[in-house]
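Duplicate of #3305? Posting structure anyway:
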């Protein structure tokens, strides 16, 4: 069973309770939990790709950590970043590699 997500409520629960609930209950509680269509591993690969392509590096860092927990290997993450460098941009790849080297250091 996946760990229950509480980041929305922890960070925005009082300020934006509806957004927090949608984040925790719908995005992570329903969409991410639906393993019969895509595995958590594959969802992590897709999510990291989308975040890198948009240049959303704070969120990419958090999702790279989740990706590692979901079984995405250092080799797979390096291949993902290398592949996307041609579509999302070389500078974004450099930034993403900086995050990946730290997250996959051990």
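Output from current build:
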């Amino acid at each position: 069973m996946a760990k229950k997500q509480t980041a929305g409520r922890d960070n925005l629960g009082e300020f934006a309770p509806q957004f927090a609930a949608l984040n925790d209950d719908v995005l992570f509680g329903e969409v991410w939990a639906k393993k019969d269509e895509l595995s958590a591993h594959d969802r992590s690969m897709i999510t990291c790709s989308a975040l890198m392509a948009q240049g959303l590096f704070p969120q990419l860092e958090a999702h790279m950590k989740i990706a590692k927990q979901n079984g995405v290997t250092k080799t797979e993450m390096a291949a993902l970043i290398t592949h996307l460098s041609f579509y999302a941009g070389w500078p974004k790849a450099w930034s993403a590699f900086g995050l990946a080297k730290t997250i996959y250091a051990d």
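Confirmed duplicate; merging threads. Residues 38-106 form a domain with the AhpD-like fold (CATH 1.20.1290.10). The longest helix spans residues 17-31.
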